[in-house]
Write a structure and sequence with these properties.
Layout (H helix, E strand, L loop, with lengths): L1 H26 L3 H21 L4 E5 L13 E6 L7 H14 L3 E6 L6 E5 L6 E6 L2 H16 L1 H16 L12 H14 L15 E5 L2 E5 L17 H15 L5 E4 L4 E4 H4 L13 E3 L16 H18 L3 H4 L5
Parallel strand pairs: 2-5, 8-10
Antiparallel strand pairs: 1-2, 3-4, 4-5, 6-7, 8-9
Helix pairs in contact: 1-5, 4-5, 5-6, 7-9
Bound molecules: adenosine-5'-triphosphate and magnesium ion (MG).
The site of magnesium ion has 5 residues, from loops.
Length: about 325
């Protein structure tokens, strides 16, 4: 009887892994879509270089970090080195150029926290945000993309977590919940902490890539092709990892004292970061250190109401993974 039960459990877990993988596959963009984005980007490059021959255009965010689901918006950064430029003027000029090239819904949002030009490409329906000189975002995009190449389980886990967060309404910084970027960082940290580890800590390894952006030195080991098979001693598959991820954030994370840090591959204390009390709007109720801007807590948007929402959602997800007969449906039920 024991053997029969073990076999049943195995079947169960294999079935669950297959179900999660199917969800992951359904979220990955088709090659066709990626090709269209590339084309669109090259058109933008052409227009921009006519006006600013010295400028460079970069893709960043989910269309470039390999954590983008199908039909994501495109994030683009226009980098102009000239220190004399007036940001608003450049963005207004850019909006002008795009408008006259038949792009639709072109809007320059010059007073936003991060000023951008928004636009839509009429044929493909691709939406795009263009920001100015946000090079740090381009660099953290590369870091995420490099981590994703080490072990496919990172991409699988992050797609499931992002899909869960969007379905459950906890992926909106303006409502005090977390950004997609924060969720991916949480996944990287989590896989660094598994035993055996599934991901290394690239910033603690010998530097092969280094760039200074806004006085911040960004340095890490980026020859990730040499790290294939790094996590192969760990045999955990996606269902187990999803279970453990939610279990960690529901019941094991020390919200009162701990700061998760991908940069060091460890957990730091709030005390050593001086993140123990509220300063201005930073409440530090869930602490996620940015890998490069280390004084920046990605959880700072979370307030005393949204922390409750967030933790209840982690608990709900953990309990579903523990007890629900069909977790890959229930987990993503709209809230
Ligand atoms: P989505 O699929 O939801 O659009 P995304 O990967 O584009 O996900 P966003 O949270 O929209 O994620 O952020 C876009 C990019 O902006 C990130 O990849 C990151 O480079 C940068 N970014 C976002 N939030 C922060 C932050 N708090 N600090 C530093 N960089 C950030
Ligand atoms: Mg985005």
């Amino acid at each position: 009887r024991m053997l029969k039960r073990q076999m049943l459990c195995r079947l169960d877990i294999d079935w669950l892994n297959a179900a999660f993988l199917a969800i992951y596959e359904s979220l990955v963009p088709l090659e066709e879509e990626t090709a269209k984005q590339k084309q669109f980007f090259m058109l933008l490059e052409k227009l921009v270089s006519k006006e600013w021959p010295e400028a460079r255009l970069y893709l960043y965010g989910s269309c470039a970090n390999s954590f983008g689901v199908s039909k994501s918006d495109i994030d683009v950064c226009l980098a102009i080195e000239d220190a004399e430029i007036n940001k608003s003027e450049v963005l207004l000029k850019l909006a002008d150029i795009l408008q006259s090239d038949n792009f639709q819904n072109v809007q320059a949002l010059t007073r936003a926290r991060v000023p951008i030009v928004k636009l839509m490409e009429p044929v493909s329906g691709i939406s795009c945000d263009i920001c100015l000189n946000n090079v740090l975002a381009v660099v953290n995009t590369k870091l995420l993309r490099d981590y994703a190449q080490i072990d496919v389980r990172l991409r699988q886990l992050a797609f499931i977590v992002k899909h869960w967060a969007k379905s459950r309404g906890v992926n909106a910084t303006y409502q005090g919940t977390l950004s997609s970027y924060a969720y991916v960082i949480m996944c990287i940290h989590f896989l660094q902490q598994r035993r055996p580890a599934i991901l290394p800590c690239l910033q603690e390894m010998g530097t092969t890539y280094s760039i200074t952006v806004d006085d911040i030195q960004c340095a890490y080991f980026d020859q990730v092709e040499k790290l294939h098979g790094f996590g192969s001693r760990n045999k955990e598959a996606i269902a187990q990892l999803v279970w453990a991820f939610f279990n960690y954030w529901a019941y094991r994370h020390d919200y009162a004292n701990a700061v998760i840090s991908v940069r060091t591959g460890s957990i730091l204390s709030k005390r050593e970061k001086d993140w123990t009390r509220r300063i201005g709007n930073d409440r530090h109720l869930i602490c996620i250190e940015d890998p490069f801007e280390i004084s920046h807590d990605l959880g700072r948007v979370v307030d005393k109401f949204s922390i409750k929402v967030l933790r209840e959602e982690f608990e709900r997800a953990a309990d579903i993974m523990q007890y629900d007969p069909n977790p890959c449906v229930t987990l993503f039920e709209p809230y």
